[in-house]
Model the fold of this input.
Amino acid sequence: MSAPELSELRRRLAEAEDTLRAIREGEVDALVVRSVEREQVFHLVGGDETYRAFMESMELGAAALDADGRLLYVNAALPGLLGVPAGMLESQGLLETLGVAGAALRDLLAPEQNCRRSAEVTLQLDGRQRHLLVTAAPLPLPYGEGHALTFTDITQRLDAVAREESERIGRAIMASAIEAVAVCDAQGIVSHASPAATQMLGVSPLGRPFSEAFPLAFAPGAGAMDAGDLVAVALRGGAARAMEATLRTAQRTRDILLSVSPLRKAGGAVGGCIVTLMDVSERRALEKRQELLMRELDHRMKNMLALVLSISARTLEGATGLQDFAERFTQRLSALAATQDLLAGKVLSGLSLQQLIAAEVAPYVSALSARISMQGLEVEVSRDAAVALGLVFHELVTNAVKYGALSNESGRVSILGQRLQDGGLEILWEEAGGPPVRPPARRGFGETVIARGLGQFAGGGTTVEYRPEGVTCRMLLTAESLG
Amino acid sequence: MTGNQDEDGAGILRLTLYVAGQTPKSVAAIRNLERICAEHLGSDSYAIEVVDLRVSPHLAREHNIVAIPTLVRQLPVPIQKIIGDLSDTQKVLVSLQVDREG
Done:
């Protein structure tokens, strides 16, 4: 071999060694490979490495699978998104690691799905749901087709949608609530209020401390000193239900049933409180009225029993025999019952004297009869006065039927009501045309009732005169005994 | 990228840089060569041609290029090859013998 040939060989050897060194030391990133027909450039790492670095730096999870679903590549973000150790995906496989969610992904990888497609999967991570949007696209591989998968965490987006929906429902509930509802922030400032709350106050409570916006007074012994204390209790996580209070506004005072509970943020920390105020004024008024009625009923029952006992005793005194007692006692109780019937039918509207007298006269003679004349009796009387007057008129009528103006065919009775200056009423019962009247030998029950009845029950007085031409009875009703 | 277009000029440094598209080493080699020329060579003392072998792979044959990037000093003869991204300035200057040439 000649010296020049040897020199050329040495040069080429040095060049070959330098090339190998450069490849080994990573100074080159592409090689030219010469085949029979042509040269081809092959990249060593440079291009792929750039894309790989890009994939690794993405927040999206990315994975490449071969046609059989075997994992070829997974980027750094994906294990974190799936909540699994980095090595687990390589050792167990992506779809297998995902379990149920992985089975759903297999549909995305079906051979007939030769285009980009997406699916949502939900994973349980640390007790919370994580929603991932998985997109699969065909991936050309040197030895066939594979799948490129990207995983996007859409939990926050879905949570935001859910929050928005939840807020919308909350607003709708607030708007439709019959009760007044106020929401306070952590400082006790009213941040939301239902229309009913604003209506209750007359002004919007928004932006004001609850205790200032709602001037509440609690019943002694209710436990809470004022509304501010109650809100403070709720902000510490406590709750109170159905507390009685009164709310004083410029317009009126209302009875309120108040409930308060903490409003917990995600994670359980108390971020405010919800106060519900139910206006129970009408219910309270009804309860008070019922209580009053019950007491009144009790009082009347006692009065009635006393009256019956009194009638019984007086009738017994004047009775000539058991038959006579039975007859008179029954008649008197019937008179009492007639008045009660009238009163029962007139619970709401008052009972007039006209109606009362007509009921007592009815068993003996029609109230429309020419023999009975009534004037100035369209006056309402109180219940107690009605009971007493009912008995008085019963005695007057029975007396007139037995001995007086109604005991013959021509006698007449005139009943005249006249208003007095002090607001009271004078009633004059005047008989005429009956048989000559003689004063009774002794005072019977009838006279006793007539003489005392009004004094006891109606606060007025009566005067009876047994004039020969007919009995007259003057009754005075005080203004209070009129309806 | 030519400092001087006069191909017959005596003492002209005639260089060809073989790259493969925009690979990191190719881009680095182009930038390093620009810097070395600007800092160490007179603006009329060299001529540079950049050959993208991805576009024209057959041009590798002329200088028997195997690894990319490679810088070939065509002139002055003998031909010299520097393989790599030319980040070692001293090595490049020695190989080009610019200290002696220029």
Notes: The first strand of chain B starts at residue 13 and ends at 19. The interface with chain A takes residues 20-21, 23-26, 53-54, 57-58, 60-61, 65-70, 78, 81, 83-85 of chain B (CB under 8 Å). Residues 24-40 of chain B form the longest helix (17 residues). Chain B has one domain: 13-86.
